[in-house]
């Protein structure tokens, strides 16, 4: 039974602790499972440890003088805890980092080329690009302009497209909705959901925008102060009173209620 | 006004300037990947020239074989520098990397002095010193050859930066973290840019070694090379070529006017003025990229 569960999880992260600069304990025993083909959300306020969790999985901690001090991460059954970031991308993990970070002085088309594995044939790369342009037609229109001058939404689309070129089986997105208008968030989330359903791409989505995230994922984890404090099906989380109050804007809460929790709410949303 | 004489000064200024560009292209390659002006580029150029001499004069290989072989050796040396020294500095302040390149320059100068001594040796490329006349204008053949090499390298790098590997290098120059996130090996990219800059150092070492002899003074080319690179914008190869031409002409023509007035030595003053004025008035140089303001 245990083994069957293992086999169904594309990613299994067990009791991971991360230290920055050898002193700052940023996450304290986080366990997250991503079942194959599912979309999972990591929710939590600023500084909770969401990005650190993703960096532990993608291997980008090293670039920020961070390291995993305890626990193990398995991807498709292989222990990747100590693996180089580059190897993990080759295995099929791609991390769309916070803040879009497109290659500003390259064109969108060159951004996609830059992410192509050295071994990928030109024909395959062109096919990948066509597919990405069909998901994001706005990118196709601007593919030869400078990426630094794209709008925020277009840059987010490009960052996602650039990750797709690596042909991941697990896509991790760090706050893709940040600073984007609601209609753009809806468009981008819709496309991610579409890719997830059509191609079975597993997705780990980090969001502060819980309302939008819980609409498209099947499960969610709530992280606070470097620990998982809640885990459940998306519907159950949506119905949970704490989550409703702090993330989904309450609704039925009386004024008294809001005042009472104001300081806590402020902390969560800051 | 003697127009023939003035055009001769200008044309030879262009040619000399392109030889500065030849040197500066190496600086630009490393700046793009590591965000530091490589203070060891002069040392590398000198080592490149000595390796050619060792292979041709000492080991007896013909020049057509010795030069590509030296380029190959220097290519390996460039990769080695990244592997042994630079990789440990990843994530440290850029000024540390700058100091490392300074240390490397001193090391390279000391090593060449220990192995080959201080006496000047000649490159003996076999380029004729017979005067070449373009109409009434006298042109130096070796300068013409060197300018051709500089332009050829310029074209080669422009093409290279359109290939997949070249695009990855430009991506690395833009954002290390984002590069890692899509599986680009930043370390190998930085190593490659050092390797390519070391090959450029061989080209510059051969041409400049032919012109002024092979000795420790070759490493002092760094000063003019840096001036050209800064004027061009530090991260633009096109900038390095154009800035080289500008500096060459301004220096050649300017010195002709100023030397009689100040009694010689005005070339250095002109180079200094160009460097200082660029930094003060246009810190991004002629073609340096500005960081794009996000809206
Ligand atoms: N590079 C870093 N160096 C030191 N501390 C960091 C670094 N990145 C994040 N932290 C700390 O780790 C904690 C978790 O941060 P992070 O994972 O970025 O949270 P989130 O993504 O949920 O906002 C915070 O206290 C933050 O200050
Ligand atoms: Mg974050």
Describe what this molecule looks like in 3D:
The complex is a heterodimer of chains A (270) and B (295). Chain A is α/β, with parallel strands linked by helices and 270 residues long. Chain A has 13 helices and ten strands. Chain A has two domains: 2-92 and 169-239, Rossmann fold; 99-167, no CATH class. Chain A is 43% helix and 26% strand. The longest helix of chain A is centred in the C-terminal third of the chain and has 18 residues, at 182-199. In chain B, 73% of the residues lie in helices and 2% in strands. Chain B has a two-stranded antiparallel sheet. Chain B is globular. Chains A and B meet through helix 3, strand 6, helix 4 and helix 7 of A and helix 6 and helix 7 of B. Bound molecules: adenosine-5'-diphosphate and magnesium ion. Magnesium ion is lined by residues 50-51, 98, 174 of chain A.
The string of secondary-structure elements of chain B, in order, is: HHHHEEHHHHHHH
What's the total count of β strands of chain A? 10
* Termini separation of chain A: 42 Å
Q: What is the oligomeric state here?
A: heterodimer
Task: List segments of chain B where confidence is low: pLDDT < 50 over at least 5 consecutive residues.
Answer: none
Beta-strand proportion of chain B:
under 5%
* Relevant CATH superfamily of the largest domain in chain A: P-loop containing nucleotide triphosphate hydrolases
How many strands of chain B? 2
Mean pLDDT over the full residue set of chain B: 93
List the ions, cofactors and other small molecules found in this model.
Answer: adenosine-5'-diphosphate, magnesium ion
User: In the residues of chain A, how many domains can be counted?
Assistant: 2
Structural class of chain A: alpha/beta
Which chains have the largest interface?
A-B, 36 and 26 residues
Strand content of chain A: 25-35%
What name does CATH use for the topology of the largest domain in chain A?
A: Rossmann fold
How would a textbook summarize the main sheet of chain B? Answer: 2 strands, antiparallel
Distance between the termini of chain B: 54 Å
């Amino acid at each position: 039974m245990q083994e069957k569960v293992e086999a169904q999880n594309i990613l299994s992260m067990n009791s991971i602790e991360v230290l920055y600069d050898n002193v700052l304990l940023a996450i304290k025993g986080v366990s997250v499972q991503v079942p194959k083909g599912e979309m999972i959300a990591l929710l939590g306020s600023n500084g909770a440890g969401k990005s650190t969790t993703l960096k532990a999985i993608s291997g980008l901690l090293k670039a920020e003088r961070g390291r995993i001090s305890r626990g193990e991460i398995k991807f498709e059954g292989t222990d990747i805890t100590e693996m180089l970031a580059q190897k993990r991308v080759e295995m099929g993990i791609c991390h769309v980092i916070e803040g879009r970070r497109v290659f500003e002085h390259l064109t969108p088309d060159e951004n996609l080329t830059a992410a192509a594995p050295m071994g990928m044939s030109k024909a395959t790369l062109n096919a990948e690009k066509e597919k990405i342009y069909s998901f994001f037609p706005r990118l196709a229109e601007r593919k030869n302009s400078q990426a630094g001058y794209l709008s925020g939404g277009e840059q987010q689309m490009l960052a996602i497209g650039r990750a797709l070129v690596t042909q991941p089986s697990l896509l991790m997105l760090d706050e893709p909705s940040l600073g984007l208008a609601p209609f753009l968030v809806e468009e981008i989330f819709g496309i991610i959901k579409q890719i997830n359903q059509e191609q079975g791409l597993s997705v780990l989505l980090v969001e502060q925008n819980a309302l939008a995230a819980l609409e498209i994922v099947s499960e969610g984890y709530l992280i606070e102060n470097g620990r998982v404090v809640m885990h459940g099906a998306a519907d159950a989380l949506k119905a949970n009173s704490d989550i409703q109050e702090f993330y989904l804007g309450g609704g039925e809460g009386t004024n008294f209620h809001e005042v009472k929790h104001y300081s806590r709410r402020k902390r969560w949303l800051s | 006004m003697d127009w023939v004489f003035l055009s001769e000064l200008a044309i030879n200024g262009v040619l000399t300037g392109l030889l500065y560009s030849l040197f500066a292209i190496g600086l630009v390659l490393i700046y793009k990947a590591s965000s530091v002006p490589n203070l060891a580029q002069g040392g590398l150029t000198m080592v490149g020239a000595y390796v050619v001499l060792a292979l041709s004069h000492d080991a007896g290989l013909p020049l057509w074989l010795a030069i590509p072989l030296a380029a190959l050796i220097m290519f390996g040396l460039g990769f080695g520098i990244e592997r042994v020294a630079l990789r440990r500095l990843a994530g440290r302040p850029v000024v540390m990397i700058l100091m490392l390149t300074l240390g490397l320059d001193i090391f390279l100068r000391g090593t060449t002095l220990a192995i080959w001594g201080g006496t000047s040796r000649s490159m003996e490329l076999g380029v004729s010193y017979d005067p070449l006349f373009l109409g009434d204008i006298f042109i130096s053949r070796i300068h013409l050859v060197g300018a051709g090499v500089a332009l050829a390298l310029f074209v080669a790098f422009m093409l290279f930066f359109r290939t997949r590997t070249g695009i990855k290098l430009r991506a690395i120059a833009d954002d290390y973290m984002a590069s890692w996130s899509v599986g680009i090996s930043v370390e190998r990219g930085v190593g490659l840019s050092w390797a390519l800059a070391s090959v450029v150092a061989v080209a510059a070492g051969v041409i400049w070694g032919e012109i002024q002899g092979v000795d420790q003074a070759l490493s002092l080319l760094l000063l003019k090379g840096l001036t050209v690179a800064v004027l061009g914008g530090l991260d633009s190869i096109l900038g390095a070529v154009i800035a080289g031409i500008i500096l060459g002409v301004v220096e050649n023509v300017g010195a002709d006017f100023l030397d009689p007035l100040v009694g010689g030595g005005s070339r250095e003053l002109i180079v200094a003025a160009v460097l200082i004025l660029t930094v003060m008035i246009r810190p991004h140089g002629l073609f340096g990229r500005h960081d794009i303001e996000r809206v």
